[in-house]
Amino acid sequence: MIVADFMIYRPLTLSSDDTLQVARETMDASGLPLVPVTADGKLLGMVTDRDVRQQVGQLNKIRVGAVMSQPPFSAHPSTQIAIAARMLTRGKIGSLPVVDNGNLLGMITTSSLLQALEAVLAGGDNGSVGVELDVAGSGETTAVISLMRSLGPLIATGNTNSGIFGKQTLYLVLPADDAERRIDMLRRYGFKALAIDQESAI
pTM for this structure? Predict the structure, then answer.
């Protein structure tokens, strides 16, 4: 599973000229304890609820740019969910920005991670089918994921393990109503299915 599958797209943002009063209102609206600060789509920094609390009584006087800080970590859309979870834990934060070439694309939060966990646990439900594939390195992994996304929604992805000679096992969670067609397409492209969740609809 990767961050792009679960991140919050187009989060609320601030400019460095906004006041901390605006920052507090934005946090209330987003439900997040921190808000990204951007300029022309580029991530400049973050403002947290702690930054706001430390300036109570002066929120209309202090600009965001005076208190914002660089986030301790940021994720890329292709970052594995497990790595994002580790960054959140190490940084002792509830969310982190998702950035590509300096551009803010979204946010990944602890709630996002719970959604990812739910997707994994739901792999055997009637609404989805779990498929394990034998792939050779990141190139084949990217090819499989791109192919699946071209055919429709992809519930979740993940590398369940890796072995010698660049071999990996890629795990996909597909919508049950379209899983048979997609698995057949994978086989036609030469990918080997190691296991298919037999509790699924196919």
Answer: 0.60
